[in-house]
Amino acid sequence: MTLLTIITPSNPILRRKARPISDPRAPEIQRLIDDMIVTMREAPGVGLAAPQVAEPLRLAVIEYAPDAEDLPEDAELPEPKLYVIINPEIAARSEEMVDGAEGCLSIPGYAGTVSRHKAVTIKALNRQGRPIKIKADGWLARIFQHEIDHLDGVLFIDKASKTWKTKDEEDVEAE
Ligand code: ZN
Fold first, then answer.
1. pTM of the model
2. C-beta separation of 150 from 52 below 8 A
3. Phi and psi at residue 73, to the nearest 5°
4. Centroid of ligand 1 to alpha carbon of 89 (angstroms)
5. Of 10, 36, 54, 128, which has the highest C-beta tally within 10 A?
């Protein structure tokens, strides 16, 4: 597996609309998925979209577990769950919007407040090419919306009501 280079807005691929993947099971797509997973973990980030590694394809990987401090005290620590979404679409959105702080692996050192739908339902193909439907709420819903924006060349700074430089001790999860 290969660590991929994460591009920044100086590379125009990040601003391009990505194209659908016709054969998710093609060896080059399977290799790209594996490389994106290791690249996301190494970064570290909670999500990575293919355009961020200079591949203008409709594919993203997400790995996220709620922070222990956000859970009730007696809750079991959840295992991070890995999602591979190919040609994803937002099939349903909550009317309710929530503000939250976001970072992006392609815009290191910055964070911003972005309003997102509180809950979304995603339809996509998994890495075997089978249709999947995912209901996401809260931070997971935010990550899906951030990653799907990447597939249309949209960055969080386009939507942020406020952006700021992050300090070393500030913990904003990057996507
Ligand atoms: Zn991002």
1. 0.93
2. yes
3. -55, -35
4. 17
5. 36
Q: What is the pLDDT of residues 128-163, one digit of tens each?
A: 999 999 999 999 999 999 999 999 999 999 999 999
Q: Which domains does the chain have, with CATH numbers?
A: 12-165 (3.90.45.10)
What residues form DSSP beta bridges with 49? 60
Distance 147 CA to ligand 1 centre (A): 6
CA of 100 to the centre of ligand 1 (A): 14
What's at 95, amino acid-wise? E
Per annotation, catalytic residue among 55, 63, 102, 147:
147
DSSP labels, 2-39: -PPPPP-TTSGGGGSPPBPPS-TTSHHHHHHHHHHHHH
Helices (H), 25-137: 27-42
The total number of residues shown for the chain amounts to 175
CB distance 62 to 50 below 8 Å: no
